[in-house]
Amino acid sequence: MKFVRLRTTLLHLVSLAITCTGFSQVSYAGVIDTAYLVDQESRAASLARLEVMLASEKVAGQLESFGVDSALIAERIRGLSDSELLTLEKEMDRQVAAGDALSLVGAVFLVLLILELVGVTDIFKSI
Amino acid sequence: MPAFLVFVSACASIPPRVGELQAGQAPIELDDTPFFPQRQFQCGPAALATALTSSGADVDLQALVDRVYLPGKQGSLQVEMLAATRTAGRIPYLIDGRLQVLWAELSAGRPIVVLQNLGVVAIPRWHFAVVVGIDTERDVVILRSGTDRRRVTGLRTFLRTWRRSDFWGFVILRPSELPTAVDDVRYLKAVAALENAGRSEEAATAWRTALQAWPNNPVALFGLGNAALARGDNLAAEALFRRMLEAEPSSAAARNNLAMALARQARYEEALREIGIALQANRDPALDRELQHTKTLITNMSRQRASDTQAEP
Questions:
Q1: What value does the CA radius of gyration of chain A take, rounded to a whole number of Å?
Q2: Strand B75-77 to strand B148-154: parallel, antiparallel, or no bridges (unpaired)?
Q3: Among A31, A51, A76, which would you mutate to test the B interface (most chain B Cβ atoms within 10 Å of its Cβ)?
């Protein structure tokens, strides 16, 4: 009996945490989002509330590490769909950030490539 | 080495279905499209400001910098461009990347945000720009791009730079608009994401737009029901979920939300009966957890109500 009550309390705490967290995409307790009906990907994401909550916290951390002001983070995350959040959590490092910046790594590579082609280096040859 | 060279040169060819326009299509240019010259690395916010303003949204460039610019990456992510469009109360709709679609959207008065790679694969230079015109006689595309109010780029060059992003682009829809070549699932998904972003009023308008195009579409009925719940109109929500259940009697999700609409009217017995039917009909284990959770929630609501009534003198 005591165990059941403890479990119920825990369950309530978790649902409270999910409902109250600033990053949560969950609109209203007990109500299923329309995204659930749309496609397989959104369906899975819209029911994975705990995962979405954890993902938004991780994405928040990533945004902060890329220099986003912490006061702006909740607002930025709010616009993302659940499935976008779950993707971003896994792939933020690999995502293209468009801003006209030239990739230095790429430039170095191209210089090496030209040097190789004109015979100055032999760096790409397997030994 | 040779493999690498093949990879680079593969980018030069454009699939015909992407580059073709129907014969006789007149040149088109949206001269009135506003222009926000970009500051360093901030083509994302600038392109977004251009397209949002042209959709009638009231936006401020600095606010968009705060929403989409990532200082540590010196650029903006595609998904954040979509997210910021939603928080401005508009619908970002990903287009099929083809000239024909660009031309049709321009004809409907909508410029298109595109992602280009102005460099090469080895030295990428990713860039957001806004297509505002296609001159079918001179074979050029007109863009709001970087610090150029009117950049004219040859069609072939444009297609080559666009190809490197897999022809990625989106238009910004007002909640009352449908795109020209509309894919219903993609549109409904885009509106569901707007609901997710907390813009339920705009989402409601968009669901109505969808219902005009596809009467009795179950997703749109469900979405409109959710919007009614969000503004506290439980009677309207109840009617909409019932309408959806007429179209799809086995939808456990609709029954779950109908139960919530009833519970919020203090009709707990009816609500629990609906949840019971939903639990029996449901085949999705993840949804089962959700239904159980709703059942607990409604039971607690009704107990709370009972004890409140008892406590009254």
A1: 23
A2: unpaired
A3: A31
Output the six-digit token pair for B80. 């954040």
Question: Rounded to two decimals, what is the model's pTM?
Answer: 0.86
- A25-63 pLDDT, tens digit each: 444 689 999 999 998 777 777 778 788 889 999 999 999
- Going from the first residue of chain B to its last (313 residues), give the mean pLDDT of each consecutive group of 10, the final group possibly shorter: 41 75 88 92 95 96 95 95 97 96 97 93 89 95 95 94 95 98 95 94 98 96 97 97 95 96 97 97 89 95 88 67
Chain A residues 13-42 with CB within 8 Å of chain B: 15, 25, 27-39, 42
CA-wise closest residue to A59 among A34, A89, A87, A29: A89
Determine the distance from the C-alpha atom of residue B73 to the mean position of all C-alpha atoms in its chain, rounded to a whole number. Answer: 24
A97: helix, coil or strand?
strand
- All residues of chain A having their beta carbon less than 8 Å from the beta carbon of residue B124 are 96, 103, 106
